[in-house]
Amino acid sequence: MMSDDQRSVSSDWSELSDKTEIDEAQKEAQASVKREETEVINEAQEDVKEEIVNETQSIEDKAKENAKQDTEVIEEAVKEFEAKENNGEPDGKNEPLNEKKSVAKEDDKVIIKLETDHEILQIIREEKLQSENSHLRTKLADYQKAMINLMEAFEQVANEKLSASYHINNLQDQVNFLQTRLQQLSLESHTVTFSDPRISTSFMKRGNLAVAIENAMERIQNRTFHKFYVGATSNPEDRMRCHSKKGFQKMEILFCTNRYSDACLFESTLLNQVFYESGCTNMKNGSFGLVASKQIFYVYMLN
Fold it and tell me: Do 168 and 276 reside in the same domain of the chain?
């Protein structure tokens, strides 16, 4: 049956796992929102470009159509003038002089009228083009203003989300710190006992690494036995059963912590100092055998 402290530690680790999943979901949601914002901006820009192209093409088409109509009117007038001239003087000899002058005056009037009509059409066409261009520029300015407003709104939303994310991360760091501290306090207040009488906690230290390492070195140097072995584990009883088959009869717990990194540092530092000590049976110098996912770690000495 799990003790209250063990259930508390297990619950804390479960909450920490849930917090990690929430952080990952929040990051994914932020990335999704950013992708959607980019797609909306790109689509809006494409729509503006397409409408500008369509408006410009429409104006060009209208201008070409107006020019074509003007040309047709002029050509028709010229043909009409030539037809009248030919009908008024079939042989160039029999028409009276006064009649020829009258026809010439009429022709001049027709030409002047055609020129005047052409100028009026040209002025109307230019005014229409200017009006359409002005309308198009106004519409484009409106689109650009709307685009700027949209981008500012997106930027504001992004800044607000960034600020919220910062506060969430800050709160998460505080929660993690409090959970770690709670685990440390729980471990420090918990009495470590083992059912195997061969395992002793008389020399066990917690907390400050430097003090604990100094205490362990003093214990090893003042030992009354020759052969010893230094190791780290999360299950001392299982390790004791394993090493008893190799001739070791007793295990002394030197250090206890819930931080994987502290356990590794303690073991490697201690081995660096005692590896070449007479009686040390360790084959390798370093930290081995620990599993980071465990909740508590012990560094021990066998004799």
Answer: no
Q: What is the DSSP string of 7-72?
A: HHHHHHHHHHHHHHHHHHHHHHHHHHHHHHHHHHHHHHHHHHHHHHHHHHHHHHHHHHHHHHHHHH
* Tokens of residue 213, six digits: 């390492």
| Domain stop point among 155, 188, 221 | 188
Query: Which residues sit opposite 23 in a β-bridge?
Result: none
Short-list 269, 175, 292, CA closest to 213: 269
Query: Three-state DSSP class for 135?
Result: helix
**Residues 230 and 81 placed together within one structural domain of the fold:** no
The CA distance from 233 to 182, in Å, is 22
> In the chain, where does DSSP find H-type helix?
4-88, 97-189, 209-221, 236-244, 260-274
Domain identity same for 94 and 47: yes
Same domain, 53 and 90: yes
Residue 287: C-alpha distances to residues 180, 213, 215, 264, 290 (Å): 23, 14, 19, 5, 8
Q: Given a cut of 60, is residue 134 above it in pLDDT?
A: yes
Sheet with 199-200, side-by-side order of all strands: 199-200, 251-257, 297-302, 229-233
Q: Specify whether the CB–CB gap between 84 and 77 falls below 8 A.
A: no
pLDDT at 240: 95
Q: Is the pTM of this model over 0.85?
A: no
The answer to whether residues 225 and 141 belong to one domain is no
Residue 112's pLDDT band, with cuts at 50, 70 and 90, is confident
The b-or-e profile of 107-145 (16+ CB within 10 A means b, else e) is: eeeeeeebeeeeeebeeebeeeeeebeeebeeeeeebee
Collect all residues with Cβ–Cβ distance below 8 Å to 119 and sequence separation of at least 6: none
**Number of structural domains in the chain:** 2
Residue 40, domain extent: 4-188
